[in-house]
Protein backbone atom coordinates (compact mmCIF):
# COMPACT_ATOMS: atom_id res chain seq x y z
CA UNK A 1 0.00 0.00 0.00
CA UNK A 2 1.17 3.53 -0.58
CA UNK A 3 0.21 7.07 0.26
CA UNK A 4 1.91 10.39 -0.40
CA UNK A 5 4.69 11.23 1.99
CA UNK A 6 3.81 14.22 4.06
CA UNK A 7 5.65 16.77 6.19
CA UNK A 8 3.34 18.36 8.73
CA UNK A 9 3.89 21.35 10.98
CA UNK A 10 1.13 22.71 13.21
CA UNK A 11 0.90 26.30 14.38
CA UNK A 12 -1.31 25.41 17.33
CA UNK A 13 0.61 26.45 20.44
CA UNK A 14 -2.24 26.96 22.88
CA UNK A 15 -3.56 23.43 23.49
CA UNK A 16 -2.28 21.31 26.42
CA UNK A 17 0.06 18.39 25.82
CA UNK A 18 3.04 18.60 23.52
CA UNK A 19 6.46 17.02 23.37
CA UNK A 20 9.29 18.96 24.96
CA UNK A 21 12.73 17.42 25.43
CA UNK A 22 15.83 19.17 26.74
CA UNK A 23 18.35 19.68 23.96
CA UNK A 24 15.82 19.93 21.12
CA UNK A 25 14.49 23.21 19.73
CA UNK A 26 12.82 21.19 16.98
CA UNK A 27 12.01 17.47 16.97
CA UNK A 28 11.92 15.61 13.65
CA UNK A 29 10.01 12.32 13.57
CA UNK A 30 9.82 9.83 10.69
CA UNK A 31 6.75 7.54 10.76
CA UNK A 32 6.94 4.25 8.83
CA UNK A 33 3.82 2.12 8.29
CA UNK A 34 2.40 0.34 5.26
CA UNK A 35 -1.17 0.80 6.55
CA UNK A 36 -2.54 4.22 5.48
CA UNK A 37 -5.12 4.21 8.27
CA UNK A 38 -2.43 3.72 10.93
CA UNK A 39 -0.18 6.32 9.30
CA UNK A 40 -3.00 8.85 9.38
CA UNK A 41 -3.79 8.02 13.00
CA UNK A 42 -0.18 8.50 14.14
CA UNK A 43 0.12 11.70 12.11
CA UNK A 44 -3.00 12.96 13.86
CA UNK A 45 -1.54 12.21 17.29
CA UNK A 46 1.65 14.06 16.46
CA UNK A 47 -0.23 17.03 15.01
CA UNK A 48 -2.44 17.17 18.10
CA UNK A 49 0.63 17.35 20.33
CA UNK A 50 2.59 19.74 18.13
CA UNK A 51 3.37 23.07 19.75
CA UNK A 52 5.33 24.43 16.85
CA UNK A 53 8.38 22.31 17.65
CA UNK A 54 7.52 19.09 15.80
CA UNK A 55 8.19 18.27 12.18
CA UNK A 56 7.31 14.83 10.94
CA UNK A 57 7.12 12.82 7.76
CA UNK A 58 5.30 9.59 6.95
CA UNK A 59 6.40 6.87 4.52
CA UNK A 60 4.86 3.55 3.59
CA UNK A 61 7.80 1.12 3.60
CA UNK A 62 11.18 0.30 5.07
CA UNK A 63 12.83 1.00 1.74
CA UNK A 64 11.26 4.46 1.59
CA UNK A 65 12.29 5.10 5.19
CA UNK A 66 15.97 4.47 4.52
CA UNK A 67 15.86 6.82 1.54
CA UNK A 68 13.97 9.50 3.48
CA UNK A 69 16.36 9.42 6.44
CA UNK A 70 19.13 10.73 4.20
CA UNK A 71 17.46 14.08 3.53
CA UNK A 72 14.96 14.41 6.39
CA UNK A 73 17.52 13.56 9.12
CA UNK A 74 14.96 12.59 11.77
CA UNK A 75 15.71 12.63 15.48
CA UNK A 76 13.71 9.41 15.89
CA UNK A 77 12.12 6.81 13.60
CA UNK A 78 8.72 5.41 14.58
CA UNK A 79 8.10 2.21 12.62
CA UNK A 80 5.53 -0.52 12.25
CA UNK A 81 6.75 -4.05 12.93
CA UNK A 82 5.14 -6.08 10.15
CA UNK A 83 5.55 -4.67 6.64
CA UNK A 84 6.23 -6.20 3.21
CA UNK A 85 9.79 -5.97 1.95
CA UNK A 86 12.00 -4.52 4.67
CA UNK A 87 10.02 -5.17 7.85
CA UNK A 88 10.44 -3.46 11.20
CA UNK A 89 13.12 -5.86 12.44
CA UNK A 90 15.32 -5.40 9.38
CA UNK A 91 14.73 -1.65 9.37
CA UNK A 92 15.89 -1.41 12.98
CA UNK A 93 19.08 -3.27 12.09
CA UNK A 94 19.69 -1.11 9.01
CA UNK A 95 19.21 2.09 10.98
CA UNK A 96 21.54 0.87 13.70
CA UNK A 97 24.23 0.09 11.12
CA UNK A 98 23.86 3.16 8.90
CA UNK A 99 22.61 5.81 11.36
CA UNK A 100 23.70 4.66 14.83
CA UNK A 101 22.72 7.92 16.58
CA UNK A 102 19.10 7.82 15.33
CA UNK A 103 16.89 5.72 17.65
CA UNK A 104 14.06 3.56 16.33
CA UNK A 105 10.78 2.99 18.19
CA UNK A 106 8.51 0.12 17.17
CA UNK A 107 4.74 0.14 16.94
CA UNK A 108 3.51 -3.39 17.65
CA UNK A 109 0.15 -4.95 16.85
CA UNK A 110 -1.52 -7.38 19.23
CA UNK A 111 0.29 -10.73 19.25
CA UNK A 112 3.68 -9.43 18.13
CA UNK A 113 5.16 -8.92 21.60
CA UNK A 114 7.79 -11.64 21.09
CA UNK A 115 8.94 -9.94 17.89
CA UNK A 116 9.21 -6.70 19.82
CA UNK A 117 11.61 -8.34 22.28
CA UNK A 118 13.70 -9.58 19.36
CA UNK A 119 13.75 -6.07 17.91
CA UNK A 120 14.90 -4.60 21.21
CA UNK A 121 17.73 -7.13 21.26
CA UNK A 122 18.69 -6.06 17.74
CA UNK A 123 18.85 -2.38 18.53
CA UNK A 124 15.37 -0.85 18.84
CA UNK A 125 15.22 1.86 21.50
CA UNK A 126 11.68 1.09 22.67
CA UNK A 127 8.25 -0.01 21.52
CA UNK A 128 4.62 1.04 21.88
CA UNK A 129 1.65 -1.33 21.37
CA UNK A 130 -0.63 0.18 18.73
CA UNK A 131 -3.57 -0.15 21.07
CA UNK A 132 -1.76 2.19 23.50
CA UNK A 133 -0.55 4.80 21.03
CA UNK A 134 -2.98 7.48 22.18
CA UNK A 135 -1.90 7.20 25.81
CA UNK A 136 1.76 6.16 25.61
CA UNK A 137 3.30 7.43 22.37
CA UNK A 138 4.38 10.90 23.47
CA UNK A 139 5.81 9.71 26.78
CA UNK A 140 7.79 6.96 25.03
CA UNK A 141 9.12 9.36 22.40
CA UNK A 142 10.16 11.80 25.13
CA UNK A 143 12.16 9.17 27.00
CA UNK A 144 13.85 7.87 23.85
CA UNK A 145 14.73 11.36 22.61
CA UNK A 146 16.20 12.31 25.98
CA UNK A 147 18.40 9.19 25.95
CA UNK A 148 19.42 9.84 22.33
CA UNK A 149 20.40 13.41 23.20
CA UNK A 150 22.61 12.07 25.97
CA UNK A 151 24.28 9.65 23.53
CA UNK A 152 24.93 12.44 21.03
CA UNK A 153 26.40 14.65 23.73
CA UNK A 154 28.67 11.79 24.77
CA UNK A 155 29.76 11.38 21.15
CA UNK A 156 30.56 15.10 20.98
CA UNK A 157 32.43 14.86 24.26
CA UNK A 158 34.47 12.00 22.82
CA UNK A 159 35.62 14.29 20.02
CA UNK A 160 36.91 16.73 22.65
CA UNK A 161 38.82 14.04 24.54
CA UNK A 162 42.56 14.56 24.96
CA UNK A 163 43.92 12.01 27.43
CA UNK A 164 42.96 9.98 30.48
CA UNK A 165 44.79 8.17 33.26
CA UNK A 166 43.40 6.01 36.03
CA UNK A 167 44.83 3.68 38.68
CA UNK A 168 43.59 0.63 40.59
CA UNK A 169 45.12 -1.16 43.58
CA UNK A 170 43.84 -4.75 43.55
CA UNK A 171 43.72 -7.55 46.09
CA UNK A 172 44.73 -10.98 44.81
CA UNK A 173 41.15 -11.74 43.86
CA UNK A 174 40.74 -12.97 40.28
CA UNK A 175 37.09 -11.89 40.30
CA UNK A 176 38.32 -8.29 40.16
CA UNK A 177 40.02 -8.93 36.82
CA UNK A 178 36.81 -8.98 34.80
CA UNK A 179 35.64 -5.78 36.48
CA UNK A 180 38.87 -3.97 35.58
CA UNK A 181 39.01 -5.20 31.98
CA UNK A 182 35.33 -4.39 31.44
CA UNK A 183 35.93 -0.87 32.76
CA UNK A 184 38.78 -0.35 30.30
CA UNK A 185 36.83 -1.84 27.39
CA UNK A 186 33.80 0.36 28.13
CA UNK A 187 36.01 3.42 28.10
CA UNK A 188 37.76 2.37 24.87
CA UNK A 189 34.46 1.77 23.13
CA UNK A 190 32.98 5.09 24.20
CA UNK A 191 35.94 7.41 23.65
CA UNK A 192 38.37 5.53 21.41
CA UNK A 193 35.78 3.82 19.17
CA UNK A 194 37.62 0.49 19.04
CA UNK A 195 35.81 -2.32 17.27
CA UNK A 196 34.83 -5.57 18.98
CA UNK A 197 37.93 -7.40 17.76
CA UNK A 198 40.26 -4.74 19.17
CA UNK A 199 38.36 -4.64 22.45
CA UNK A 200 38.66 -8.41 22.74
CA UNK A 201 42.44 -8.33 22.19
CA UNK A 202 42.95 -5.61 24.79
CA UNK A 203 40.71 -7.45 27.25
CA UNK A 204 42.55 -10.76 26.87
CA UNK A 205 45.98 -9.14 27.23
CA UNK A 206 44.97 -7.24 30.38
CA UNK A 207 43.34 -10.34 31.87
CA UNK A 208 46.50 -12.39 31.34
CA UNK A 209 48.81 -9.67 32.69
CA UNK A 210 46.80 -9.07 35.87
CA UNK A 211 46.26 -12.80 36.43
CA UNK A 212 50.02 -13.41 36.08
CA UNK A 213 50.72 -10.63 38.56
CA UNK A 214 48.37 -12.15 41.11
CA UNK A 215 49.29 -15.82 40.74
CA UNK A 216 52.93 -15.89 39.64
CA UNK A 217 53.94 -12.54 41.14
CA UNK A 218 52.24 -11.98 44.48
CA UNK A 219 51.33 -15.59 45.30
CA UNK A 220 54.55 -17.02 43.80
CA UNK A 221 52.77 -19.98 42.23
CA UNK A 222 54.91 -21.97 39.81
CA UNK A 223 53.91 -22.77 36.26
CA UNK A 224 55.12 -26.34 36.74
CA UNK A 225 52.45 -26.94 39.40
CA UNK A 226 49.77 -25.74 36.99
CA UNK A 227 51.07 -28.12 34.32
CA UNK A 228 51.17 -31.18 36.59
CA UNK A 229 48.15 -30.60 38.83
CA UNK A 230 45.72 -27.85 37.87
CA UNK A 231 43.37 -28.49 40.80
CA UNK A 232 46.22 -28.32 43.29
CA UNK A 233 47.39 -25.08 41.68
CA UNK A 234 44.10 -23.29 42.36
CA UNK A 235 43.79 -24.78 45.84
CA UNK A 236 47.22 -23.41 46.67
CA UNK A 237 46.25 -20.02 45.26
CA UNK A 238 43.26 -19.88 47.58
CA UNK A 239 45.40 -20.89 50.57
CA UNK A 240 48.14 -18.35 49.95
CA UNK A 241 45.67 -15.50 49.64
CA UNK A 242 45.02 -15.91 53.37
CA UNK A 243 48.56 -16.22 54.77
CA UNK A 244 51.69 -14.08 55.09
CA UNK A 245 53.63 -12.83 53.23
CA UNK A 246 51.29 -13.20 50.26
CA UNK A 247 48.14 -11.89 51.92
CA UNK A 248 49.24 -8.24 52.09
CA UNK A 249 50.59 -8.00 48.55
CA UNK A 250 48.70 -5.98 45.97
CA UNK A 251 48.58 -5.56 42.20
CA UNK A 252 48.92 -2.00 40.90
CA UNK A 253 47.23 -1.30 37.57
CA UNK A 254 47.63 1.93 35.60
CA UNK A 255 45.95 2.82 32.30
CA UNK A 256 47.12 5.82 30.28
CA UNK A 257 45.17 6.77 27.17
CA UNK A 258 47.33 9.09 25.06
CA UNK A 259 46.18 10.09 21.59
CA UNK A 260 46.36 6.98 19.42
CA UNK A 261 48.14 4.85 22.02
CA UNK A 262 47.03 3.06 25.16
CA UNK A 263 49.66 2.30 27.82
CA UNK A 264 48.84 -0.31 30.46
CA UNK A 265 51.15 -0.98 33.41
CA UNK A 266 50.72 -3.92 35.79
CA UNK A 267 53.01 -4.22 38.82
CA UNK A 268 53.00 -6.83 41.59
CA UNK A 269 54.81 -6.97 44.93
CA UNK A 270 56.37 -10.38 44.41
CA UNK A 271 60.08 -11.16 43.97
CA UNK A 272 59.94 -10.85 40.17
CA UNK A 273 61.68 -13.12 37.66
CA UNK A 274 64.64 -13.19 35.30
CA UNK A 275 63.36 -11.40 32.20
CA UNK A 276 66.34 -12.57 30.12
CA UNK A 277 65.16 -16.18 30.43
CA UNK A 278 61.85 -15.46 28.73
CA UNK A 279 61.80 -16.15 25.00
CA UNK A 280 59.09 -15.21 22.54
CA UNK A 281 58.60 -16.93 19.20
CA UNK A 282 55.50 -15.60 17.36
CA UNK A 283 55.54 -18.69 15.14
CA UNK A 284 55.41 -21.16 18.05
CA UNK A 285 51.65 -21.70 18.13
CA UNK A 286 52.10 -24.71 20.44
CA UNK A 287 52.46 -22.20 23.27
CA UNK A 288 48.70 -21.70 23.05
CA UNK A 289 48.15 -25.27 24.26
CA UNK A 290 50.57 -25.18 27.19
CA UNK A 291 49.36 -24.32 30.70
CA UNK A 292 52.43 -22.14 31.27
CA UNK A 293 53.70 -19.39 29.00
CA UNK A 294 50.38 -19.05 27.21
CA UNK A 295 49.54 -15.76 28.92
CA UNK A 296 52.73 -13.96 27.90
CA UNK A 297 52.41 -15.35 24.38
CA UNK A 298 48.92 -13.84 24.06
CA UNK A 299 50.02 -10.54 25.57
CA UNK A 300 52.89 -10.18 23.13
CA UNK A 301 50.71 -11.23 20.21
CA UNK A 302 47.87 -8.81 20.95
CA UNK A 303 49.89 -5.80 22.09
CA UNK A 304 52.13 -3.66 19.88
CA UNK A 305 54.91 -3.30 22.43
CA UNK A 306 55.64 -5.15 25.68
CA UNK A 307 58.35 -4.29 28.22
CA UNK A 308 59.36 -5.56 31.66
CA UNK A 309 61.25 -3.64 34.32
CA UNK A 310 64.62 -4.99 35.43
CA UNK A 311 63.14 -6.80 38.44
CA UNK A 312 60.52 -8.64 36.39
CA UNK A 313 57.62 -7.54 38.59
CA UNK A 314 56.23 -4.86 36.27
CA UNK A 315 54.98 -5.16 32.70
CA UNK A 316 54.17 -2.25 30.39
CA UNK A 317 51.94 -2.95 27.39
CA UNK A 318 51.31 -0.55 24.53
CA UNK A 319 48.32 -0.85 22.21
CA UNK A 320 48.38 1.39 19.14
CA UNK A 321 45.05 2.34 17.68
CA UNK A 322 46.23 3.06 14.13
CA UNK A 323 47.05 0.07 11.93
CA UNK A 324 49.09 -2.92 12.98
CA UNK A 325 52.59 -1.60 12.28
CA UNK A 326 54.91 -2.66 15.00
CA UNK A 327 52.56 -5.29 16.42
CA UNK A 328 54.31 -8.17 18.12
CA UNK A 329 57.40 -6.04 18.75
CA UNK A 330 58.87 -6.94 22.06
CA UNK A 331 61.54 -5.29 24.13
CA UNK A 332 62.50 -5.91 27.70
CA UNK A 333 64.49 -3.65 29.98
CA UNK A 334 68.15 -3.91 29.16
CA UNK A 335 67.59 -5.21 25.61
Describe it.
The protein is an alpha/beta fold. The protein folds into two domains: 6-159, Rossmann fold (3-Layer(aba) Sandwich); 163-330, Histidine kinase-like ATPase, C-terminal domain (Heat Shock Protein 90, 2-Layer Sandwich). 41% of the residues lie in helices and 19% in strands. It has ten helices and twelve strands. Strand 10 and strand 11 (314-320) form a beta hairpin. Helix 3 (88-98) packs parallel to helix 4, helix 6 runs antiparallel to helix 7 and helix 7 packs antiparallel against helix 10 (294-302).
Keywords:
335 residues; alpha/beta; Rossmann fold; Heat Shock Protein 90; 2 domains; 10 helices; 12 strands; disordered N terminus; disordered C terminus; Sig_transdc_resp-reg_receiver
Briefly say what this structure is.
The chain is of the alpha/beta class. Helices cover 41% and strands 19% of the residues.
Could you outline the blueprint of secondary structure elements for this entry?
Layout (H helix, E strand, L loop, with lengths): L5 E3 L18 E6 L3 H13 L5 E6 L2 H11 L3 E5 L7 H11 L5 E5 L4 H9 L4 E4 L3 H28 L2 E8 L4 H18 L3 H23 L4 H6 L1 H11 L10 E8 L2 E7 L26 H9 L2 E4 L5 E7 L8 E2 L5
Parallel strand pairs: 2-3, 2-4, 4-5, 5-6, 10-12
Antiparallel strand pairs: 1-3, 7-8, 8-9, 9-11, 10-11
Helix pairs in contact: 2-3, 3-4, 6-7, 7-10
Classification by helices and strands: alpha/beta
Low-confidence stretches: 1-16, 323-335
Q: Cα-atom Rg, whole angstroms? A: 27 Å
What's the main sheet like?
6 strands, mixed
The CATH top-level class label of the largest domain: Alpha Beta
Task: Report the principal-axis shape.
Answer: elongated
Could you please say which CATH topology of the largest domain applies here? Answer: Heat Shock Protein 90
The share of residues in extended strands comes to 15-25%
Helix content: 40-55%
* Strand order, sheet with most strands: 1-3-2-4-5-6
Amino acid sequence: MSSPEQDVRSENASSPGGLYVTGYDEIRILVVDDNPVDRTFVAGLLAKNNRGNLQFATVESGEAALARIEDFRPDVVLTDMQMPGIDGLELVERIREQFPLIPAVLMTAFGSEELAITALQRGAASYVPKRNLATSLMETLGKVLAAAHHDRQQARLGQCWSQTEFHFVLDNDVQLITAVTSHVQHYLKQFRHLDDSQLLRVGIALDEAIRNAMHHGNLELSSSLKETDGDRYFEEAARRRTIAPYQSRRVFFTARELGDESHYIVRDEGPGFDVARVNYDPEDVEQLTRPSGRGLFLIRTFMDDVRFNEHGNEITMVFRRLGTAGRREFASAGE
